Amino acid sequence: MSVTMNDIARAAGASVSTVGRVIHNSGYVSREVRERVEQAIERLGYVPNQSARALKSSRSGIIGSLVLQSANGLYYRINDSIIRAARAAGYELLTMEAQPGQGMEGHLIDSFIGLHVDGLAIISNTSITGEMFAKLRAAAIPVVAVERGYLEMGVDSLVVRDLEGSRDAVQRIVRSGHKRVALVAPRPALDVEKRRYAGYREGLESMGLGVDERLIRLTPGYDTQYGRIAGADLLSLPEPPTAVFCTADTLAAGVLQAAYQKGLRVPEDLSLVGYDDVLSQSLSPALNSVGLFMGSIGPCVMELIEARRADPERPAEARMIDTVYADRGTVAVRSARKETVIRIYDEEELL
Amino acid sequence: MSVTMNDIARAAGASVSTVGRVIHNSGYVSREVRERVEQAIERLGYVPNQSARALKSSRSGIIGSLVLQSANGLYYRINDSIIRAARAAGYELLTMEAQPGQGMEGHLIDSFIGLHVDGLAIISNTSITGEMFAKLRAAAIPVVAVERGYLEMGVDSLVVRDLEGSRDAVQRIVRSGHKRVALVAPRPALDVEKRRYAGYREGLESMGLGVDERLIRLTPGYDTQYGRIAGADLLSLPEPPTAVFCTADTLAAGVLQAAYQKGLRVPEDLSLVGYDDVLSQSLSPALNSVGLFMGSIGPCVMELIEARRADPERPAEARMIDTVYADRGTVAVRSARKETVIRIYDEEELL
DNA sequence: CTCCTGTATGGTAACGTTACCATGTGCTGA
DNA sequence: TCAGCACATGGTAACGTTACCATACAGGAG
């Protein structure tokens, strides 16, 4: 069907061994023969059969990635970062999506094992059992968990400094003069969510402000709609917040909608900060947001995979990923004395 | 290293042939032996080696997809749709990203050939040459182009009814009473862009309105920033448009920012419609947008691949993908008599 | 002259799976 | 009684690549 090393050997008047040596640039090959073989490869359009290679060397050249299927663009960005790093290291990335709550992860893991992937990145909160990890370990497949701590199960992990990112953002808000800083966040179930939630509290406390539980809204999930409801709720309080910190951009977008419906402007009437920086730059106005430092995610994943490959017995390691605060001016400076910011209307606005 | 059919055979006291028959549910196997084999498979955690299968049967079980690396979330959604359909058909999807203008597509195509993918989806405007298509054809790999017509090169294609989608959206705007409907679109280079652009013109003309060239803004690309600039430009015209149709959500987001900066409200002061529906539901307000009917993209891709595989000589076919208009109320109804919509201010807004 | 070493090339057994073919049973019908 | 059949199982040659060993010849050292 397709061109094989045998075809090349025949066309170049050499043996498969010699062709192999040319392809791998190893061993002794005379200049003359090397050229004949290279020409034949070029002329016939030979491409090495990866299946055969994988079978022989039990290295597929493929890194797997398992993500939870969701509307959250963050996972695709993370995946992107890994794609690039994998390719730079000579691998391709094969992504499988787990439908939430379908319990199909076991089959997906089996598929990865069958493909003999050279590494596996597990992104976000897929539900992998200890049994599956054991199977992966038996198959000698290095696993890296991203944004989800499986560290206690002996899995190498990438952990985002979410507590610091969250705390830092809140501190910035408070430093701008805000006293009533609300939180809109998903109900903390996953580690990520807990860390971001804790960061909010630490941020306030570290600035000498108490946490006002009335200003906290925990949503059932990440839908924009939940953000809108929470936002509307907060903004109709007798003493509404002057700033809202959201631990997800999608929620921030919802709060923005709520503000808009109330006729409030960001940042003049309400300061707003999102998280993940996946949507913020496209909103109007473009929002401040805490983003992950994507540049290091892919490379860290590959480093952990290579390290595990080199020494399967090494203790599980966690790499920390920094956050990056994108400042787009949606936190207004409030003077200490005045409770309301002076607002200047455009001519058009007043007709 | 990992468990093979041989291990199962030994454990179950059978031969590899018998194990093979159990796995494939073909040929004669006694109930007793079948059970022994199945138990061994379960107990040892046997997973078929795909590399060996692929080598033997020259079917890898992998569909490739090639996308242009870009911030546009649309491609990921399309990819998602294909992932699901591929999986439903028993394949995995392996995605490679081409960096724009890097000319690395040749290498990527070679990688796909080396992997012996059973099909290849080319998404968006990657630059594939005739030579590459020839190589793919020689390797008997069915190719489907999505959102990019390579039909003239004899490649099966998925074409979105963009002209109709665009025209329909404009007609809806006009029917709501708008006379000055502006366009913000990337300079039409690709077929997609031309179709969407043409749809705008047809939409206006079909409603008996002339095209006012002063209301057309063509941007150098899809950045939100271009939308903002174009929007600011349009809104400062002596006779500004009452509605803006954008052929991309990212551009619409920019126009929204411009409107916001001018103190205009959507839809009360300005009606706004986006395209691709990838961002619209997260904006504030959530915008009307023309989306692709994702449900049919993946299945169509797989159908075309299977059809091509069944008959490599069949003439190239184009499948049409419908658009879906998402109405979120950002097109205001304008009465025929009055040129301006009565605007009601909230109390807060007037202090 | 032999031995060794460097250079150059060819042969071949795996890797795990699958598609055949071969070789058995035991049973039925002529 | 035996051909013919359904049933049941085992053996083995590929698939394309790679790792290793074998072979061969030159030229220089001993």
Structure description:
Two copies of one chain form a homodimer. Chain A is α/β, with parallel strands linked by helices and 351 residues long. Chain A folds into three domains: 5-48, no CATH class; 57-161 and 295-321, Rossmann fold, CATH 3.40.50.2300; 162-292, Rossmann fold. The first copy, chain A, is built from twelve helices and twelve strands. Chain A has helices at 5-12, 16-24, 31-44, 50-57, 73-88, 105-115, 130-138, 162-175, 191-206, 224-235, 249-262, 294-310; strands at 62-68, 92-98, 119-123, 143-146, 156-160, 181-186, 216-219, 243-246, 271-275, 288-292, 318-321, 323-326. In chain A, strands 2-1-3-4-5-11 form a six-stranded parallel sheet, sandwiched between helices. In chain A, helix 10 (224-235) packs across helix 11. The longest helix of chain A has 17 residues, at 294-310. The radius of gyration of chain A is 27 Å and the shape is elongated. The model of chain A is unreliable at 337-351 (pLDDT under 50). Chains A and B meet through helix 4, helix 5, strand 2, helix 6 and helix 11 of A and helix 4, helix 5, strand 2, helix 6 and helix 11 of B. Chain B binds a DNA duplex (30 and 30 nucleotides) through helix 2 and helix 4.
